[in-house]
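Many introductory courses stop at the sequence. We go one step further.
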Amino acid sequence: MSINRFVADDWLAQSHANGTDLGLAELLQYQRHTKVLDLSPGMVIQSKLAGSYLARTKGRGMEFDEVRHYQNGDDVRTIDWRVTARTGKVHTKLFREEKERPVFILTDLSNSMRFGSALLFKSVQAAHLAAVLAWHVKQRGDKLGGLVFSSQRHLELKPQSRTHGVLRYFHALTEVHQAATSAQQTGLSLAQALRQMRRLVRPGSLLYVISDFAGLNADALRHVRAIRQHNEVYCCQLSDPLEQALPDFASGEAAVMHQQHISLLNLGDRNLQQRYQQQQQQSAQLQERQLKQLGCKWLEISAAAPVLTQLEQRRRV
């Protein structure tokens, strides 16, 4: 999926973006677009904190669930006297407990993400997707936390609610993105970032991992497996058309944006194109298969088209 250059330039202007740098204005615009996602829990909520989600376990929460026969050990304060009087047998009320579910976003802005051949750098698109998620989290009333990392810098964010949590995450995105070309060396690899997320994520949370997964290895998979045992995990793979397949023409040169420099690639012949495409497809399929086997949900996002367009199309399917 991609858009032509004229449409791309118009979209960038309207979005206060240039495709390579990252600014706060282009993230704030997504506040009006929270209906393209559904963050409803897909697993049992295990948090010990009170919140707005109904857990599947019965307890003395705020939401009435059902009435059943009284059993030894039940709290006498929950006896339903009306049903007891009507049936002649003691019944007790059961309630469904309300739990809190923090949402965490792990955003990869490392060197491999600073690439784009069409609309945006993958790193910028990753930030746009994170912005859509963050505003939706705020709209649902959940707390937002996470980790933003590059090869040079990383910032860890503990869960916070309301607009403050969203803006704090946006400032982390812009700060780490700007630091990606600096000489600082406080960055992380994907495996190291996932290791920190294991410490940060609470049981019963929702975690979004936004990355091209170029750094996915056995160590990273081990951390994903550990997180997935007690949490719901979405893996959002960022890609660029030039990474998936070379252009259709058999020979020539193509200009590619890479860290604000123009590089020239010799495209080679048809055989090279076919081998390249097959290799890239196999690599992407392997990443998807490995993460799905761990129980993660999978979402593919291209850097060559607006993220809202892609999410809306998936929602209609």
